[in-house]
Design a protein that fits this description.
By secondary structure, the protein is an alpha/beta fold. It contains 14 helices and 15 strands. It has 2 domains: 166 residues, 3-Layer(aba) Sandwich (Rossmann fold); 167 residues, Rossmann fold. The two termini are 24 Å apart.
Amino acid sequence: MMKKKRVKRVLLVCDRSGGHVYPALLLAEGLKRDGVKEKNIYIFCASDFLKSKIERYSYRVLGKDIKRGNVFFEVVRRLFEAFVIMFKVRPNVVVGFGGRDSVALVLLGVLSGARTSIYEPNVVMGKANKFLSLFVPLVFRGFVDGKDEVFAKKHVFAGVPARYGRGIENKRAAKLKFGFTEEIPVIGVLGGSQGAQFINIAFMRAAKSLDKGTGVIHICGNNDAHKVRQIYAHEGINAFVIEFCDNMADFYSAVDVLVSRAGAMTLGEIIKFRVPSVLIPYPGASSHQLFNARYLSDRAAAVLIKEDIFEHKKFVKVIRKLIDDDSFRGDMAGKLSDMDVTVDGERFYYNLFVEGLKYEKIS
């Protein structure tokens, strides 16, 4: 059993996606609340774009954005970078959040004697975390499915951290915020993330077949916004189109049905807000999202449609059924309400640092 220790310097190791960075920031906030000075909290991130977001805070941000290419040279550069970082920082806590950019630092964390762990938000572990799970003493999980656990005793449930607050609890008020009246059924579309352009195209085509009384809130990203607005206007579809949404809690509160990819954070939000959904998993990234989507679809809590065998008619039929069939939609929301996966930021921090890694509060 681990003895309780105090945090001196902590290194949070992220790859290059928001799904890695957000949980790390939650842990950093928890550490700060418990008295760890910001100068002793280091966040490694392999994306210059995300580093610019992290730098809004006062944490130490490390890491180079090395372009993907020759794997051998990439590994050599990451190893050299990891040795330099570990020598300078000398952390007594290292937490990795997945992705191949995290491998070298997490391994060196183990070798250095730092209390080292990894967090896997997806239902099934990615290749990097699966490899690292052979060496770290603790593996924190967003979901406990039991299908891919290498050493079951290492695996501890931590939950999927909720990125947003409660939102507008009154459905009528939430819809009004986006310009829709209560009686209008609203479909939410998340097409703005990396690799989600397929959803933008597929849904705009499907929208032409929907009842003109249906409302759409479409978060489409910078690249497609102008085109998406033009298509909706031409088809006479009542749509609220935005590149990004600052208050996603209100978005989830307003929509009756969601069309989305199936990242771990999105699944957590679907469960938290009990939104009946059509999930089209991103086909890359070792099929993480396919297993995530199956976690809900196998429990009749979402509809799964695979991109590689996508059928337009089936997609339209599913959306229509979700909009028109209150019982079908209600059953799905009921299944979601039975799930206990999402945790708030404070609980997430407690699960990892206090209960899992056995660190005492500083203050």
